[in-house]
Amino acid sequence: MKIDQIDRQILTLLQRDANRSVGDIAEQISISKTACWRRIHALENNGVIRKRVALLEPTTLNLPLAVYISVRTNQHNESWAENFQRILADIPEVLEVYRMSGDLDYLIKAVVTDMPDYDRLYKKLIKANLSDVSSSFVMEQMKSTTELPLDHLP
Q: Which domains does the chain have, with CATH numbers?
């Protein structure tokens, strides 16, 4: 899908607030509501817009402690990976998981209430037969955004 300047403007506005009405977006970028709706629908159908969500504040939901968990394993086979994915799926505090290159096998982002809550998460996680687990706790969040830069588009 070719993304033009109008699509970029739509995406910028939706990334900042996906709750905006089609009419509001159309007015802001000077196109008709129908044209705006068609463009948004095309962006969704082509997988450019993956999902629209509400971003919740972890601290108000009693999840003030963010943790990045580095995982190494000596198991590099399909059955281990499937079991690991099942274990991760059953831990709602786990927000993101990445399979990494280099010395680290996996990087996990999670949120917890406190250290005892992290210990409960850790005990669930190690059921995956991991060889090394190292955790780093976020002391200060200096930048957090879900907005992707759009200036890399051709």
A: 5-45 (1.10.10.10), 58-137 (3.30.70.920)
Q: Which residues contact 81 (CB under 8 A, 6 or more apart)?
A: none
Per-residue pLDDT of 104-137, as tens digits, reads 999 999 999 999 999 999 999 999 999 999 999 9
Q: pTM to 2 decimals?
A: 0.89
Q: And the tokens for 77?
A: 């086979």
Assigned token pair, 8: 């970029």
Tell me the Ramachandran region of residue 47: left when phi exceeds 0, alpha when psi lies from -120 to 50, beta otherwise: left
Closest C-alpha among 110, 113, 108, 109 to residue 61: 113
